[in-house]
Structures are given as structure tokens and as C-alpha cells.
Design a protein that fits this description.
CATH topology of the largest domain: FAD/NAD(P)-binding domain
Shape: elongated
Radius of gyration: 25 Å
Mean pLDDT: 93
Number of helices: 13
CATH class of the largest domain: Alpha Beta
Strand content: 15-25%
Distance between the termini: 14 Å
Structural class: alpha+beta
CATH architecture of the largest domain: 3-Layer(bba) Sandwich
Length: 413
């Protein structure tokens, strides 16, 4: 049996190797010279391969879009299976905060190399080329056509072409067009896990400043509800904010409207209002003859000081012993809740993942096979499923790739 896998990302590589394990003759068609380009840059080059989430329901809860569709795939290839898979391929893994799983080496290329060993071991044939259309006959897929006019025949085809994020790695939406052409529905494509643009111009003044151990809350001002809360790292940019917490927060924003979502940043979440007030009072007393700008350097990164002083309305040139209780209160209020108004997501090509994709109602969740075209399977980001940060999206890629590959060759692994 000939199986053609289109797309050499994590889902495609897993699907190809799995189908080959099942006895199929597998061709992996990838438009780039090398496979795994996006995998190599995930997790800032460290590669958060999965999340060691112990319970299936908890895993599903971290997939806000069509999570239930993944029950079968996750049950068949759970996070512990992903961990065993890579450790069996010679990559020691470690578990960090939030159950995030990384290679001990902190090097994503170790994961890419492991996948390459998997392809070689299982006998997958790799071929460079860009598929532009699927071939069908009597309602069944029978191969594809490449952009240089070649025909690649197959008994089954697995589409694992990714989304629209990071187009430089080859994710340019080719799979959506091919699926549409054979009758599939593609839901609205939006960025997810993406930086946020903000209205406040002072973000550009803090550009490049990375904050650690701060708290972030996202409020939906339309409903008055808190939709996200976390503690960790974020980064100021010329357009607004980025960093791990911000990317996670973006995936909770489902109906973007200019000005609807407000970010609340607590610079000192470990301190209550009263504790922070006492801390500031002590600093002012110790530096009584210095101006406020200098005193605040004990509490804040230098880039934030003029911004905080300006927003508080307190004169930064006052000596510390001239700062009144009311002024101190204004500073503490700001440090415990500095606000930014979200205007938009950054462009989709800056997103970590794409939200939207092949309508899962047209895909058999037990096999990843198309309900419309016999022998056509889907895996990974091309599907309309996306998760929060923390290794969940790669787990989706590996689990759906495993299931699609096994199904395409008759259910064996």
C-alpha cells in the first residue's frame, strides 16, 4: 500500500513513520529542503514537546477549540506515550513548571534529529516538492500533483501541511486550498498564541524590557469578566506586549474588538497593597534626599521609572522626603494595576499557531479520515483545533499524526 504524507512538520513526520511501521510504502513530500523547520524553532529553540498532563480530561480542557474531537487521538497516544517515544529514540526529557516537557539538552534539534532517525528506521522515503492539488477518482483520493507538474500516486494521502503561522517554515496554507478543492470546509483562520497590539503609546518607550515574576489579568470590558490570569514573564515591544504570558492570554481572546480587552499588570504580585506601600515608604525614607526617579530604581527596572512617574501624575524631580501619602498611594495603585488596552492581534504570520482550519465535523475523530473523500486523512495544525501554550499543541500534532498514520495503513502501528 502506498501512503503519501504531505508536510514534513511534527504531525507529518509522526504520520509518515507510523504508516511505515504498519507496513505501508511511504513517501513524505516536503516543500523545504529539510523537514522539521518549525519544530526546530518551537519553545525558543528548546522545543516543549508535550505537557505531562496526567488526566485525559485535563488535557482536553487545555484545548479550547474542539477539544472533544481529540479524545480518540489522545487516548491512543497520550503525553506519556510521547515521552516514551522520544526517550526510546535516545532523547532524555525533563519536566518543568506547569508540567512542560523539554529535552534535557534544551536543544530543539535533538527532537528534530530523533524524528529523522524515526523516519530512517521505518524506511520512509523523503522527497522535496510542493503539492498544489489532490487527485481523486470515484470519491477517493489517489495522489497529488506538484507545482512542477509531477504526479505522485498514492492509495492514501495524509495532509499535514500546518497552518498560516511562520510562513518561512513552509506553513503557507497550501493544505487548506487543496482540501477546499475536494469539498472540505475551512473555518475562519485567525492567529492564536500571538503578541498583542496595545493602544497606549508608552509601550514603545519600554521596548525590549522583559519583566519576570509579574501577574497578568485579562478583562473583557464588554462582559466585565476576567478571562485569563497568570504569573510569569512578559515583554514590551514597539507595538504592545509579547512574551509567554501574553501568548497564552491571546488564545483566550476569541472575539477581538478594538478596546474590548484590558490587560492588568501587577508588578509586585508577591506583595499586598499594604506591604508594597510599606516597602515604598521605607525606600523613600532611606533615600530621603534623592529625587523620586532615583529612589524608584530600588523597585523598578530603569526603563519603567519615567513611565510609572508620568502615569502616576507625581513629579519625578521631587526629593523623596517631599512625596506625600497621597502621591505614594498613586504610585502603589499603579504598580499593582497598570493597564493596557488591546487593539488587535499581531499578524497571523507572527502567531505560534493558527486558530481555525479543516472543519472537524467533516473528519472521523476515530481515524482522522475525511468523511467526504475516502483515503484522505488530516493531522496537526491544519485541523480546526488549537490549544494553550505549554506543549499542548505539539501533543496534538503527535497524537493526530500517530492516529492518521496508523489508520492510513490499516490501523496497525
Amino acid at each position: 500500500m502506498k501512503v503519501l504524507v504531505i508536510g514534513g512538520g511534527p504531525a507529518g513526520m509522526m504520520a509518515a513513520g507510523t504508516a511505515a511501521q504498519g507496513g505501508a510504502q511511504v513517501t513524505l513530500l516536503e516543500r523545504n529542503e529539510k523537514v522539521g523547520r518549525k519544530l526546530a524553532i518551537t519553545g525558543k529553540g528548546r522545543c516543549n514537546v508535550t505537557n505531562n498532563c496526567p488526566l485525559l480530561n485535563d488535557l482536553i480542557a487545555n484545548v479550547p477549540v474542539n477539544g472533544r474531537f481529540l479524545y480518540g487521538a489522545f487516548a491512543r497516544f497520550a503525553p506519556n506515550d510521547t515521552i516514551d517515544f522520544f526517550e526510546d529514540l535516545g532523547v532524555p526529557l525533563k519536566i518543568e513548571r506547569g508540567n512542560r516537557v523539554f529535552p534535557v539538552s534544551d536543544n530543539a534539534y535533538d527532537i528534530v534529529d530523533a524524528m529523522l532517525r524515526f523516519l530512517k528506521k521505518t524506511g520512509v522515503r523523503r522527497e522535496q516538492g510542493r503539492a498544489v492539488s489532490l487527485l481523486t477518482e470515484n470519491g477517493a483520493v489517489c495522489g497529488c500533483v506538484t507545482d512542477d507538474g509531477r504526479t505522485v500516486p498514492a492509495d492514501a494521502v495524509i495532509l499535514a501541511t500546518g497552518g498560516l503561522s511562520y510562513p518561512g517554515t513552509g506553513s503557507t496554507g497550501d493544505g487548506y486550498a487543496m482540501a477546499k478543492a475536494v469539498g472540505h470546509t475551512v473555518t475562519d483562520l485567525k492567529p492564536s498564541l500571538v503578541p498583542l497590539e496595545c493602544h497606549e503609546g508608552w509601550c514603545s518607550e519600554a521596548q525590549g524590557l522583559s519583566l519576570r515574576n509579574v501577574a497578568l489579568t485579562v478583562e473583557d470590558s464588554k462582559t466585565g469578566r476576567e478571562i485569563y490570569r497568570d504569573f510569569g514573564e512578559m515583554l514590551f515591544t514597539h507595538f504592545g506586549v509579547s512574551g509567554p504570558m501574553v501568548l497564552s492570554a491571546s488564545s483566550h481572546i476569541r472575539d477581538m474588538e478594538r478596546g474590548r480587552y484590558v490587560l492588568h499588570i501587577d508588578f509586585k504580585p508577591a506583595l499586598t497593597y499594604e506591604q508594597l506601600d510599606k516597602r515604598l515608604q521605607r525606600d523613600l525614607l532611606e533615600c530621603s534626599n534623592k529625587n523620586l526617579f532615583n529612589t524608584l530604581s530600588l523597585l523598578l527596572p530603569r526603563k519603567m521609572i519615567p513611565i510609572v512617574v508620568k502615569l502616576s501624575g507625581v513629579n519625578g524631580m521631587l526629593t523623596s522626603n517631599q512625596v506625600t501619602r497621597e502621591m505614594r498611594g498613586a504610585l502603589v495603585d499603579l504598580l499593582k494595576d497598570i493597564r493596557l488596552t488591546v487593539t488587535d492581534f499581531r499578524p497571523i504570520d507572527e502567531a505560534v499557531v493558527t486558530s481555525g482550519g479543516i472543519d472537524v465535523g467533516e473528519v472521523n475523530a476515530k481515524t482522522m479520515e475525511s468523511r467526504l473523500v475516502s483515503g484522505l486523512y488530516f493531522a496537526g495544525e491544519i485541523l480546526d483545533v488549537d490549544a494553550y501554550t505549554g506543549g499542548f499543541n505539539l501533543q496534538i500534532a503527535f497524537a493526530t499524526g500517530r492516529l492518521a498514520g496508523a489508520s492510513a495503513c490499516g490501523g496497525k502501528e
